[in-house]
Amino acid sequence: MLDGERLRLMQYHFHTPSENRIQGRAFPLEAHFVHQNGASELAVAAMMFEPGAENPTLQPILAALPHEENHPVTLGRQIDLIPLFPQDRHYYRFSGSLTTPPCTQGLRWLVMKQPVQLSPTQLARFRRALASANNRPLQPLHGRLIVE
Ligand SMILES: [Zn+2]
Prior knowledge:
6-stranded mixed β-sheet; 6 strands; mainly beta; single chain
């Protein structure tokens, strides 16, 4: 639920290194959860990862990583993503765009303030799967407000 309306999770994906920065700090991995409302408007919930303890919620995702680029996979089972989110549910919010073509504007972005952890081995598997950096460079604010 966002702004009183129900949105549906359409897909999620990962960027390495992060596309967003928190107080100037980049992170080695960022997840994007892309949601859509009934009017086809998008909202993205983003989460940062930092190296630390192994993250069990990521295991089924890592196990299903495609072996070739641009080969989307179906996980074949439901994964409860709620445990992936940080305990602290505070976030930054701003208006932005898709970070990949067509870079559609007017998206609502919610970036969780608290990063979550994954083990160095898990991070290495994401990096290997993504092969090369897939982050869009940081974009100027151009007068946009970031709300906490
Ligand atoms: Zn993304």
